[in-house]
Design brief:
The structure holds two protein chains of two kinds. By secondary structure, chain A is of the alpha+beta class. Helix content of chain A is 29%, strand content 25%. Chain B has a single domain, classed as Rossmann fold, CATH 3.40.50. Classes of the chains: A alpha+beta, B alpha/beta. Chain A: This is Centromere protein L.
Chain lengths: 344, 177
């Protein structure tokens, strides 16, 4: 052997090797290997996006108020086959019957308090980006109190809505008889989501999937929402990071005064009304290096889990909360884009 | 700082050396162990480093490096920055087929923190193949280890008639769109 090296093979550590405990990931979590993983389309985001536009004044903010300050779980939906927005009343009746049947399954005795579920479906024509987009559809389940049917006191227990804001990419080459409402937002018990989902799946031959938001897209949201003007003083911009490869979970919360964040963003952004990937990177890099200077922690090595700003807050598991009605359309536009890229 | 050069040392008899560079220690170590477990008819030395440049004080002990694999974890933006910074300490002659980028974590698109365009661009800018894998899965780790071994064999000149440059050109053609 040359140089008197021992025969055989060896691993050698070079320099300052960080020896992290190689804690295995919990198996079976978040493993979703679908889609063209190795293709060039994977994990790409467009070079630039438009800033979320402010809503026009003619749209009534009160109408959309019930969508605000609630946690919505995101799903992506493939196009609905033979769906007609004129038949919403019939659909509501059919869904009501279906839910009653599902609830009765396996029950020998009719538990009447449980079964009085009323289904309402309505259109939300305000929620769209352009005339091309189909009107959003709202589904609400409410519990009838069987004690006093005359009072007709109803308690809302579950709501979900389908929407499509500026889904031009998908709308252009959609085959006939299909309606594209790629984004589905749910607030309520998961059991109802499953029942409603399976009815839509059977009736319109569509497919639901949870829509997770990747840390990369969360950085986009952080930058986009920081750049938005908000009238009054709002909550701090907060970024939540989780540190991987640790035996115990460790979360780092990074809160920035919204005005400071806006000031930083204004120095980064070059063309008004438009955001590029590069600008998003520079913005996050600035925040990371500031944090590193104070705490000697590389936030870029951690996972961005949650972004909350005065506009909205988003969690990587696909949970969103809208806080400003005027930017509702803008936020939905980005979410629609993500939903479309998931189903394509 | 010391730039890593491919040809300033003599090769050792019947052996080949690979250098794995990446910020995440755990998966790299596992990959190295998987490579050692593979059956092979030559000796391999695996050197692990979290970043370049390599410390110069042990330079005289280090064998000639035949292949450098930069490991990028798409879940960590830091790993990409780290690799980008390390590339400055590699001699240009390495990029004639003796460098590859190993991108791990590709099964978890939902955890992606890195813009994929940046990784593709890295491969194009440095004329080096980009290999996608998931080092946290045993099956893919073993397959990746085999693949790297085969590349190492070529880069060390142990496959008659196939040079590192020739091989990387082949890889580029097959990876091209």
């Amino acid at each position: 052997m040359a140089g008197g090296r021992p025969a055989g093979s060896a691993i050698e550590m070079e320099g300052a090797m960080r020896t992290l405990p190689s804690s295995g990931r919990p198996s079976g979590t978040g493993w979703q290997s679908r889609g063209p993983l190795f293709g060039r389309n994977y994990g790409l985001s467009p070079g630039s996006r438009l800033l979320p536009p402010r809503c026009q004044e003619n749209a009534d903010p009160q109408k959309m108020a019930f969508l605000l300050r609630k946690q919505w779980t995101l799903y992506s939906v493939s196009p609905l086959y033979k769906f007609s927005s004129a038949d919403l009343k019939d659909y509501a009746r059919m869904l009501g019957v279906f839910i009653a049947a599902e609830k009765q399954k396996g029950l020998a005795v009719d538990v009447d308090g449980e079964l009085g579920i009323k289904v309402a479906m309505s259109g939300l024509p305000e929620l769209r980006g352009s005339e091309q987009d189909p009107a959003a559809v709202l589904v609400q389940l409410s519990l009838r109190s069987s004690v006093s049917p005359k009072n007709s006191e109803e308690k809302l227990i579950w709501s979900g809505w389908f929407c499509c804001v500026a889904g031009d990419d998908l709308l252009e080459n959609l085959p006939e008889n299909f309606t594209c409402l790629p984004l589905f937002l749910v607030n309520g018990a998961e059991s109802y989501t499953a029942i409603v989902g399976s009815w839509f799946q059977k009736t319109f031959d569509c497919c639901f999937r949870r829509l997770a938001i990747s840390p990369l897209n969360l950085t986009w949201m952080a930058a986009m929402w920081t750049g938005c003007k908000v009238d009054k003083n709002t909550a701090a911009t907060e970024l939540l990071f989780s540190v991987p490869h640790l035996p115990q979970p460790l979360d780092i919360s990074y809160a920035i005064h919204p005005e400071d964040a806006k000031a930083l963003w204004d120095t980064v952004q070059k063309t008004p009304g438009e955001i590029t990937q590069e600008e998003v990177d520079v913005f996050m890099e600035c925040l990371y290096s500031h944090f590193h200077r104070h705490f000697k922690i590389h936030l870029s090595a951690t996972k961005l889990v949650k972004v909350s700003t005065g506009i909205a807050s988003a969690h990587c598991d696909g949970i969103i909360k809208f806080l400003q009605s005027q930017y509702l359309i803008g936020v939905l536009m980005l979410l629609t884009e993500l939903a479309i890229s998931q189903i394509q | 700082m010391a730039v890593l050069r491919p040809f300033d040392k003599l090769p050792e008899l019947n052996s080949a050396t690979i250098l794995l560079v990446g910020a995440e220690g755990g998966p790299q170590q596992q990959l190295a162990e998987a490579m050692l477990r593979e059956k092979k008819d030559f000796n391999i030395n695996i050197h692990l480093a979290s970043s370049l440049p390599l410390p110069s004080e042990r330079d005289h002990l280090r064998p000639r490096i035949d292949l450098i694999a930069f490991v990028i974890d798409i879940k960590s933006k830091y790993s990409l920055k780290n690799v980008q910074a390390s590339l400055a300490y590699v001699d240009v002659r390495f990029f004639l087929g003796k460098v590859c980028f190993l991108v791990t974590g590709v099964g978890r698109a939902n955890n992606c923190s890195v813009e994929m365009n940046a990784i593709w661009k890295l491969g194009e800018d440095y004329c080096s193949p980009v290999i996608f894998c998931e080092l946290e899965l045993e099956g893919i780790r073993v397959a990746t280890a085999q693949r790297l071994l085969r590349m190492l064999q070529i880069c060390a000149g142990r496959v008659p008639g196939v040079s590192a440059l020739y091989f990387s050109l082949l890889m580029r053609n097959s990876a091209g769109d």
